[in-house]
């Protein structure tokens, strides 16, 4: 984040823990530039092993783009810089892999505002600065930017969370259907049951945008990683298939649902297990911590989870059961169901711990 003025820099939030570095590009002399923000005195920086960061615009003119990129990475204050030099500093930081925000309100700031990833101005700025900016502040207080960063990271995290949950769940379901179709002489689940299962699950996920993210996740910016989504899908997806197949074996051997005459019992048993596992696994995936103990979802997510579970348990006993192809399940089915779900959550937590250690990432 590059700011040019003391009246705004003094209101900058402490964003060091959020992975945001705060630099100054000031048009005046170094003494005034150092007064523009929270830069430690020269002696303190030397004792801390931090190089003295003040650089003048003339220093920039003497450097090519590669050298400026290295200088910008270790410099906190640039003084006596003109509009072209400000824009070069922005581009140098971008070339070094940074996402750059620039705050300015004058004509001299227009080029840097345009080149920055996020140009920020104020409502009292000159017209060209406001036209070049992406964000216009109505108050001289940058804490709103910190709040925006947190909300942006939360939105991104919830989006990635939903994509990974859905991709891994669908991958596991497809794999389970393929296995069942190869060995079972009837359909493992009717098409109408699959549609109802997906409908209930999708409705429960409506609350995902209102979920909270762990504080550790919000401390640094995240990047879109398509390869990471694929890796997550093929790692976590088959875990659900292990317990789908376990439920197949239970329904086949324990409850004798092994013929076309008893296929409705088999289908009803897998429907409930599939929906409940799909719904509960949301809480396993939404955090890298132990769910419900170290990290709990927001109340909208909890409410929707409970409603989805109750709906899944109720449908085979409801008036709609016959039209949907369900039959009532015996009471002895539910202890098996609880055991399968607990084993599923336990194994998922074990795989999650291994995945985090190996790839140093989760969401």
Features:
3-stranded parallel beta sheet, 363 residues, alpha/beta, 4-stranded parallel beta sheet, elongated, 7 strands, 16 helices
Describe the protein.
The protein has helices at 6-9, 30-34, 42-47, 57-61, 65-74, 83-95, 110-115, 127-132, 143-183, 191-204, 215-218, 226-254, 263-285, 299-314, 321-324, 333-359; strands at residues 2-3, 23-26, 54-56, 77-79, 101-103, 118-122, 135-137. It has 363 residues and is α/β, with parallel strands linked by helices. The strands form 2 sheets. The protein has a 4-stranded parallel sheet with strand order 1-2-4-3. A 3-stranded parallel sheet has the order 5-6-7. Strand 1 (2-3), helix 1 (6-9) and strand 2 (23-26) form a beta-alpha-beta unit. Helix 12 (226-254) runs antiparallel to helix 13 (263-285) and helix 13 packs parallel to helix 16 (333-359). The longest helix has 41 residues, at 143-183. The radius of gyration is 28 Å and the shape is elongated. The model is unreliable at 6-10 and 32-52 (pLDDT under 50).
């Amino acid at each position: 984040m590059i700011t040019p003025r003391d009246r705004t820099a003094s209101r900058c939030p402490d964003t060091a823990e959020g992975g945001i570095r705060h630099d100054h590009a000031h048009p005046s002399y170094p003494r005034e530039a150092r007064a523009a923000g929270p830069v430690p005195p020269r002696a303190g920086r030397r004792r801390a092993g931090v190089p003295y960061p003040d650089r003048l615009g003339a220093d920039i003119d003497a450097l090519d783009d590669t050298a400026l990129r290295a200088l910008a990475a270790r410099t906190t204050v640039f003084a006596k810089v003109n509009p072209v030099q400000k824009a070069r500093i922005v581009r140098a930081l971008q070339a070094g892999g940074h996402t750059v925000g620039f705050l300015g309100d004058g004509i001299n700031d227009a080029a840097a505002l345009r080149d920055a990833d996020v140009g920020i101005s104020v409502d009292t700025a000159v017209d060209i600065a406001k036209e070049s900016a992406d964000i216009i502040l109505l108050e001289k207080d940058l804490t709103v930017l910190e709040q925006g960063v947190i909300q942006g990271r939360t939105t991104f995290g919830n989006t990635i969370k939903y994509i990974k949950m859905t991709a891994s769940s669908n991958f596991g379901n497809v794999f389970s259907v393929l296995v069942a179709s190869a060995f079972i002489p009837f359909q493992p689940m009717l098409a109408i049951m699959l549609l109802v299962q997906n409908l209930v699950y999708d409705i429960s996920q409506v609350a995902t945008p209102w979920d909270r993210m762990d504080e550790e996740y919000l401390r640094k910016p995240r990047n879109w990683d398509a390869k990471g989504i694929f890796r997550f899908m093929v790692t976590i997806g088959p875990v659900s298939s292990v317990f789908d197949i376990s439920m197949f074996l239970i329904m086949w051997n324990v409850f004798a649902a092994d013929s076309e005459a008893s296929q409705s019992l088999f289908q009803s048993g897998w429907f409930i297990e599939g929906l409940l596992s799909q719904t509960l696994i949301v809480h396993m995936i939404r955090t890298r911590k132990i769910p419900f103990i170290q990290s709990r979802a927001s109340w909208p997510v909890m409410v929707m989870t409970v409603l989805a579970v109750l709906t899944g348990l109720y449908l085979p006993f409801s008036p709609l059961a016959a039209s949907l192809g369900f039959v009532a399940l015996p009471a002895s089915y539910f202890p098996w169901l609880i055991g399968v779900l607990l084993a599923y959550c336990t194994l998922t937590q074990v795989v999650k711990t291994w995945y985090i250690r190996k790839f140093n990432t989760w969401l």
